[in-house]
């Protein structure tokens, strides 16, 4: 053993002292981020205190989010370490904040699902995936809507506190359970029960809108093709059967409204003749 380096450790010893597994140390050597100081005659790896310092540098940089490849490049370069960090830290901070926001949304998702289970709400994998999809892709959905829809409409639709959104999600789950029940019972599309479901869905969907009339006027400016494209950016809570059932209910409600209007016009006409 080299007399100028009395403190050398085998890979097992070095792993125990640092809390690293032998497998991880071998991987670090393989990718070139931490090479042992020397090898003995039998080819066994020997680590020094200098390797410990380097490992601590690696762990510190990993802690603030740098990849092993980035760490390797930073440690191998002859450039000033402070200057390297000065250039890369702003982007690293941005990435960490994005990851923090992602974890925050994930925690909120777990808490919401736990609440649904604790309150014995009617849930399915489709419903859960839709709720979690909305939470995960919230920023993407906002960006897409802001790009394609009237600014005022998007502002009204998205200006909803988290607590209120959770409340509306809960209400929607109740409605979805009622829809499944009505379909199972074979309730007619033109029944008052079916109409009431459609009204409830509309009220929930517009629950975040302060000026509903203005919002609907703004949405009339959006073409049908764009609305179809929205299906790829928004969560889907309904099965195909439920969507078809609601569409049939909507058609029945529209037909009833038109008949009512015609009857009113006829009555007014007869009244004028008298």
- Strand percent estimate: under 5%
Class by SSE composition: mainly alpha
Helix content: over 70%
Task: Note the run of SSEs as H and E.
Answer: EHHEEHHHHHHHHHHH
Total helices: the number is 13
On the 0 to 100 scale, the average pLDDT is 80
Main sheet attributes: strand count, strand direction, barrel closure: 3 strands, antiparallel
Strand order of the biggest β-sheet = 1-3-2
Task: State the domain count.
Answer: 2
Count the strands? 3
Tell me the quaternary state.
Answer: single chain
Which stretches are poorly predicted, pLDDT < 50 over at least 5 residues? Answer: none
Write a brief caption for the model.
With about 270 residues, this protein is an all-alpha fold. Helix content is about 70%, strand content about 5%.
Question: Any overview of this molecule?
Answer:
By secondary structure, the chain is an all-alpha fold. The chain has two domains: 9-78, Multidrug-efflux Transporter Regulator, Chain: A, Domain 2 (Orthogonal Bundle); 98-273, no CATH class. Helix content is 72%, strand content 3%. The protein is built from 13 helices and three strands, in the order βααββααααααααααα. It has helices spanning 11-18, 22-31, 49-63, 68-76, 81-118, 125-136, 138-148, 151-158, 162-185, 192-205, 212-219, 224-229, 240-273, and strands at 9-10, 38-39, 45-47. A hairpin with a 5-residue loop joins strand 2 (38-39) and strand 3 (45-47). The longest helix has 38 residues, at 81-118.
């Amino acid at each position: 053993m080299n007399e100028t380096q009395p403190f050398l450790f085998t890979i097992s010893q070095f792993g125990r002292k640092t809390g690293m597994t032998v497998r991880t140390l071998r991987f670090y050597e393989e990718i070139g981020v931490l090479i042992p100081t020397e090898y003995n005659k039998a080819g066994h790896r020997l680590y020094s205190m200098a390797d410990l310092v380097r490992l601590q540098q690696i762990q510190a940089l990993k802690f603030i989010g740098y990849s092993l490849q980035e760490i390797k490049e930073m440690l191998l370069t002859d450039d000033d370490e402070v200057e390297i960090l000065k250039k890369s830290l702003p982007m690293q901070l941005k990435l960490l904040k994005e990851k923090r926001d992602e974890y925050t949304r994930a925690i909120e998702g777990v808490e919401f699902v736990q609440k649904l289970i604790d309150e014995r709400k009617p849930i399915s994998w489709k419903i859960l995936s839709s709720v979690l999809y909305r939470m995960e892709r919230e920023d993407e959905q906002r960006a897409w809507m802001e790009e394609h829809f009237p600014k005022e409409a998007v502002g009204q639709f998205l200006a909803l506190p988290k607590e209120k959104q959770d409340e509306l999600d809960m209400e929607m789950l109740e409605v979805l359970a009622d829809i499944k029940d009505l379909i199972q019972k074979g309730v007619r599309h033109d029944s008052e029960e079916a109409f009431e479901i459609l009204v409830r869905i509309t009220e929930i969907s517009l629950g975040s809108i302060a000026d509903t009339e203005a919002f609907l006027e703004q949405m009339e400016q959006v073409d049908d093709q764009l609305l179809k494209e929205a299906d790829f950016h928004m969560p889907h809570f309904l099965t195909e059967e439920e969507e078809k059932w609601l569409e049939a209910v909507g058609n029945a409600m529209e037909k009833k409204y038109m008949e009512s209007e015609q009857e009113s016009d006829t009555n007014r006409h007869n009244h004028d003749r008298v």
